Amino acid sequence: MLEISEIFNAAAVLEGVARKTDIIPAPALASDCKLYLKTENLQLTGSFKLRGAYYKISQLSDEEKARGVIACSAGNHAQGVALGATHNGIRSLICLPAGAPISKVEATKGYGAEVCLVPGVYDDAYAKAVELQREHGYTFVHPFDDEKVIAGQGTIGLEILEQLPDVEAVVVPIGGGGLISGVAFAIKTLRPDVKVYGVQAAGAPSMARSLDEHRICHLDSVSTIADGIAVKQPGEHTFDYCSRYVDEVVTVSDDETAAAILALMERQKVVAEGAGAVAVAAVMFGKLPVAGRKVVCVVSGGNIDVNTLNRVITRGLSKSGRNHTFKIELHDKPGQLAGVMNVVAAEGGNVISVTHERINATTEINGCTIRLELETRDADHIEHLRRALADAGYHVLN
């Protein structure tokens, strides 16, 4: 097991290498608690992963360094290892899932690593990295199930206690569990009264299921927009630390995550990737007992691909009631569309697009349908528009 002295040593090693990221208030994101954000999305390489990767590499022997390092990653650990290895004059080879965001792949190459793209998800990249490590003798730098890596991530816990001494709860994303293991160990060792909660994507709940069943579980598949935490199986070390030090683990849906990414951008001017936003999503959607408490959410990373961001914003707008598409059945005669638009304008809806379908097997011979995409204020506004259209005599199909 770790000693707290190891985490303090990691903090000393990382001084001048990793940023001591700010904790900022976020009152606009939650009304029932005092919410703060630990902005690891602004860390060098755009993610907390630099901390654990760099510390692990710094502790290697000269012989281990001479063999070069290999790692597997969904993208963020890759960048941390690449930067740490290059900084120390060590060759690095990183196995990434072929579906990793292009921005993460290119950034990893930019930090000086050689990249091997592997079909599948993180676990497939892990299997390939193990194979190459055995074949060529590289030194393996595990993304989460390594106590040196966990110690590096634990420096975030030290910073939270220093920056916000009266914190009452800390909410942390979970993939393989390295981040929350380090943070929870540091906080519970120094301040056992502080609650530590973990959050996983509903489409990749490997740690949540493992804790529920009191054994390490392997998921057959994972599917989530939070690619950074799409892990099929937690580690042995991380499962043990979470069992000992984490108070509760919950899950959030992709729609909730998308809404959190959008809210962070609009209200806090903070760009978070899916994995970085799940902690905020859990608080926003009432998944945790944090009402009335001073809460820190760790925004673990901001490396989101621009194309993915565009899709996430669309999902987030829909989830938060800021965008809605009505399908309306009309009589095919002059003035019908104008009448619909008058109702929408009177109720404060903003038209984004209109699609007109005159020939459809399900409509009447003299009928047509329109799809009306609107910018709306919230879910109540959508219902108000639906009632107004119905009251005006229009048949709203959805």
How are the SSEs ordered, and which strands pair?
Layout: H1 4-14, E1 23-25, E2 34-39, H2 49-58, H3 62-66, E3 69-72, H4 76-87, E4 92-97, H5 102-110, E5 114-118, H6 122-136, E6 139-140, H7 147-163, E7 169-173, H8 178-190, E8 195-201, H9 206-213, H10 236-245, E9 248-252, H11 254-268, H12 274-284, E10 294-299, H13 306-319, E11 323-331, H14 336-346, E12 350-357, E13 367-375, H15 379-391, E14 395-396
Parallel strand pairs: 2-10, 3-4, 3-6, 4-5, 7-8, 7-10, 8-9
Antiparallel strand pairs: 1-2, 11-13, 11-14, 12-13
Descriptive labels:
6-stranded mixed β-sheet, 398 residues, 15 helices, alpha/beta
Short description:
It is built from 15 helices and 14 strands. With about 400 residues, it is an alpha/beta fold.
